[in-house]
Amino acid sequence: MRNTLTMEVPVEESTSMAKRATIASTIGAALEWVDFTAYGAVAATVFPKLFFTSMDPNMGILAAFITFGVGFFARPLGGLFFGALGDRIGRKNILLYTLSLMGAASFLIGCLPTYATIGFAAPVCLVLLRFVQGFALGGEATGAQLMTMEHAPQNRRGLFGSFINIGSSLSAAVANGMLFALVSLLGTQQFQVWGWRVPFLFSFVLVIVGLYIRLRVSETPAFEEAHAKGQDDRVPLVKAFAQYPGTIVRLLIVWCAPTACFYVITVFSLSYITKNLALPSQTAFLCLMGANVLAVCTVIGGGAVSDRIGRKPTMLIASILTMVIALSYFTLLDTKNWYVIFLAMAAFIGSLQIQSGVQPAYFAEPFPTNVRYSGSAAAYTGANLLMGGPTPFICAWLLQRSGGQTWVITAFCAVIVGASLIAILTGPETRHMDIKR
Q1: Closest Cα partner for 25 from 159, 222, 166?
Q2: pLDDT digits (tens), the chain, 437 positions
Q3: What is the largest distance, in Å, between two alpha-carbon atoms of the chain?
């Protein structure tokens, strides 16, 4: 009887802590994503006029998208740095550092003078702060996933992990909803003068809330077990690349498609709808906000389904749906009907977010504990480096070079999704792997 009771208590405690870890990681990740996503929306609509006023309007848009891409250049560096550190000192400590760093950078962006006030120093400071944002998010994204995955019950890792990635959809919904409200209340002129700063200044409050929540979560059992056994590696990043190079490259290719397509929708589409289709920015913000709210359900659904049928089949189905929708996306936008635009965005983001629901488990399970942070961060942030930051710039450049023909962007998406499909097909199923190995 004593043995039975002894076994039951840890299971209950483990499940309770798994839920707490999931909540803490989800809220913390969502708070960081709000700032990161708000930057993308403002870069597409406001920054060309405030920080690149000396340039031709088309060049101003390209320059603003370059500063957007700087955050993605920094993400792999942050992912590798915090990944190696997280494999040595634990997941919890790293998440406290990354949240504080992101909050400080975002708050300073909200305080930053424009080109009209300090000249060339304004875009330089903007680039530096965007770099810090990306550096922090590079460590945050993988750390939050692992904090949840290593606490979660084995048969529900997909479901628990999916909650982490509702952060990107929730943040896009919150950020665009906030921007829509500000434009509606202040008007376009006042929004461009000072209203755009509000989401960044508000980050101070979000950081306090996030830190309070995360301090109440314990370190993961998988890390503590590996640490107790002396399985820590002094150079986990080197070991990850030495022993799992194929896995890292394959996962990186898989994630290039969801990354690129997500920023085609959430960043480039805002510029296309307002500049090329001449529709109000409020319409674009509102459609994108609604699409991201609906996408929350597909994130959770993707993770839950992957617990039943496997990670690989779920990823394949979602990737095929992404290909189908990508081929018609800009044709639907060109109708200029906001109902159709909303449905196109919702369907496109929904197909991507099914994959986001699977991603935490899909990236964590192939690696052992002592290199899991480093390996999964290298693949995840590497994909964001290659396709996240450059995508809005590439799309804007392709559109200008083609004389406004959107088929070139459609072809760009189709090629990337095709490569992702091949990478998924060549990979193994990982649902039943032991995460404490």
Answers
A1: 166
A2: 333 333 333 444 456 767 777 777 777 666 666 766 677 667 666 777 777 666 666 666 666 667 666 776 787 788 778 877 777 777 777 878 888 888 888 889 888 888 888 888 888 888 888 888 888 877 777 777 777 777 777 778 888 888 777 766 677 677 777 777 887 888 877 887 888 888 788 777 777 877 777 777 777 666 677 666 655 556 666 777 788 899 999 999 999 999 999 889 887 888 888 888 888 877 887 888 888 888 888 999 999 999 999 999 999 999 999 999 999 999 999 998 989 999 999 999 999 999 999 998 899 889 887 888 788 888 888 888 888 778 888 888 888 888 888 899 999 999 999 999 999 999 999 888 877 76
A3: 78
Please report where in the chains the tokens 């709000």 appear, as a residue.
Answer: 34
Burial 419-433 (b: 16+ CB within 10 A, else e): ebbebbeebeebbeb
Domain boundaries of the chain, sorted by first residue: 11-426
How many angstroms separate the CA atoms of 213 and 131, rounded? 26
Pair 248, 236: CB distance under 8 Å? no
How far is residue 273's CA from residue 284's CA, in Å, rounded to a whole number?
7
Among left, alpha and beta (phi > 0; psi -120 to 50; other), residue 219 is beta
Task: Tell me if 366 sits within 8 A of 423, measured CB to CB.
Answer: no
Instruction: Give start and end residues of each alpha helix (H) in 55-156.
Output: 57-89, 91-111, 115-118, 121-149
Question: Tokens 């760093």 map to which residue?
Answer: 101
CB 365 within 8 A of CB 312: no
Half-sphere exposure of 33 (CA within 13 A, CB side): 23
Per DSSP, the three-state class of 56 is coil
* Token couple for 360: 């935490």
Query: Would you list the DSSP string of 275-303?
Result: IIS---HHHHHHHHHHHHHHHHHHHHHHH
Distance of CA 358 to the CA centre of its chain: 14
Q: How many CB atoms lie within 10 A of CB 208?
A: 13
Identify whether the C-beta of residue 184 lies closer than 8 Å to the C-beta of residue 318: no
CATH of region 11-426? 1.20.1250.20
- Predicted TM-score (pTM) of the model is 0.74
8 Cβ neighbours under 8 A, 6+ residues apart: none
Task: List the structure tokens of 160.
Answer: 């628990």
